[in-house]
């Protein structure tokens, strides 16, 4: 069964607020096994709302509309829907008593605006709202169900779960659950991964879809099965097959982040970590400490932006800096050595590069970044050649660094 | 002129990712003075994309479509649009050379999938993409312009600004009659600011709107005049009036960030800065180094997550850590002293707190954060009492720290 979401509000169209209601609703509907066939945002005018209803029922049988149910004059949804279905509004005494009680309790005087809220379409199912004064409305028509909910997120969510879902489930008991798994990878681009698993992807049976979700240095692969519980083991089989092919490109599954994976691996091996950052300027340390419990393996880091601090804190030799430059394999290796000497952690990582947009030279263009990581016995190095975009370079390098540390621990295991 | 946004992607309809592209684009289009009349999200199938084009041009003349331009088989946008306009695809040699060069540089082999990317619609204007391999496309038709952009945010944003906007502006020179100014403040909440300038806000004439855009520790005030050039001096007058009232809450105007303001102030005074972070874990250093040229004042920082490093690197006394705890005024003052001793910068800042979600105690609940900042002669301290949300606490504290440093430099001036 197909569902659609219509959100009403000029703030969304002006880019002033994020449409979190659509995100929340689409997740809920997808988890019910409904196909969300569109999300549409329109201005809060009569014409736009009418047009959106016309369009919505060409694509969906369950249409959820949010916004425009409050008492202020820019909220026109209720009147528009009632007119659209030619249902008169009438004063609802029970609702008025409820609203009056609500405001009395809060010692707020009931005004004409509140009384307007009690004008309700005669033929609609009111959806109780325990979080505010405007109830939701369900209009059944020959094309499907139109559900109008307030735009305030916690009111909308409460009505959806408590007043709407029970009605939906009792009318459509066959509604099932969607099943999806995510394989998280780092270290290879979307295209190369697609190439690598092409033959497996080709044989994935009807009803299961595979999607690639790339970000800087990461690619997530998502396998989804809709409305067919018997396919759950098949999805899991393909997760295993693809994972086996991708080997140690895979760092985790479903909701686990690379940061979480690193924490788990360091903690399970009882190893400690420290960082020495130049061009990433603390972003790696920030990522490592963005998750709860990071103090269980991350001891700290140095952000040595200047030559002088590389020399003073990390004992990088002046000759090295002069002969090879701050962005060189020699420098990052000395940074790593100095870091392990000073902070005395089991594992360390050092980064130095030209994040840009300025500062490049013919032999070391903007985006040249050196990394060194390892322990007392084994050190690895890598030169990255990235873009001219400062923030992208910083984030890509941070992701690359975390993945290098992950692989380093894996390799330690093999020894 | 009306614009519309179509975003393509199952991940959005499944509620798995937030449609940040639509937010970014609607803001950009609104700033150009275009009316965004809808945002529509559809699945990545041929039928849905075709239908979205049909619908889009009933409501808008400029339609921006994002997503579905990558090389993997779930990306169908290019083929669908070409079919829709009955334009054949042909192999683009120049693009192939560009893509080959891009991958050669990164030592990645060029595959068949990359070659598919070089099949481009014959009659369309390619929009250069300096951030990736898939160019944007502009299709002019009798109903308006259809612009197809990749879904990867930084690629989409780059193409929009650098390749599309110049074309749009040259074809529609009347665009951009919107005039707006932004006053950027830090250190007071939205409601208190609104209270403070209420009388000024009341007298702002018709045609100019005032909006409050709050974020963590910051509030931006935006004054907008649409399509009325004669109001420009009036907008500027109100910017001055409001700024005079708000005093040193104002840190900048329009696009200048707090990071940029700090750099400007430190550089103009010839002062250097270093940081000692515990609970913010490098996020402050990351923000300071997120802008080009930060090495002109920021020397470096220490992320001292463990007790041991606070003691070793910053010479915080063990007695202090034991008696007052790592999250205390005494500890941050000693951290600051140790920082200035070791890194020898003119100004420093030290932060220690409980970011959460765990680690709180009855006397120091989660969200307790101490800061100390200053120079050799003057030190200031502040205790923040924040939330249970780790990332929110880290970001709020980072913003608070930057604003404290800004105010510190202002006060130095007054001495």
Describe it.
2 copies of one chain form a homodimer. With 415 residues, chain A is α/β, with parallel strands linked by helices. In chain A, the strands form 4 sheets. Chain A has a 6-stranded mixed sheet, with helices on both faces. A 5-stranded mixed sheet of chain A has the order 14-13-15-16-17, sandwiched between helices. Chain A has a 4-stranded antiparallel sheet with strand order 10-11-9-12. In chain A, 45% of the residues are buried. Chain A has 16 helices and 17 strands. In chain A, helix 11 runs parallel beside helix 16. Chain A folds into 3 domains: 2-171, Molybdenum Cofactor Biosythetic Enzyme, Chain A, CATH 3.40.980.10; 178-253, Alpha-Beta Plaits; 258-414, Maf protein (Alpha-Beta Complex). The first copy, chain A, has helices at residues 10-13, 20-31, 46-59, 77-84, 93-105, 112-117, 153-171, 190-196, 198-202, 232-246, 258-269, 283-288, 307-314, 318-324, 329-343, 390-414, and strands at 2-8, 35-42, 62-66, 89-91, 119-121, 125-127, 136-141, 144-149, 179-186, 208-215, 218-225, 250-253, 273-277, 298-304, 347-353, 368-374, 379-385. In chain A, helix 12 links the parallel strand 13 (273-277) and strand 14 (298-304). Strand 2 (35-42) of chain A pairs antiparallel with strand 2 (35-42) of chain B, so a sheet runs across the interface.
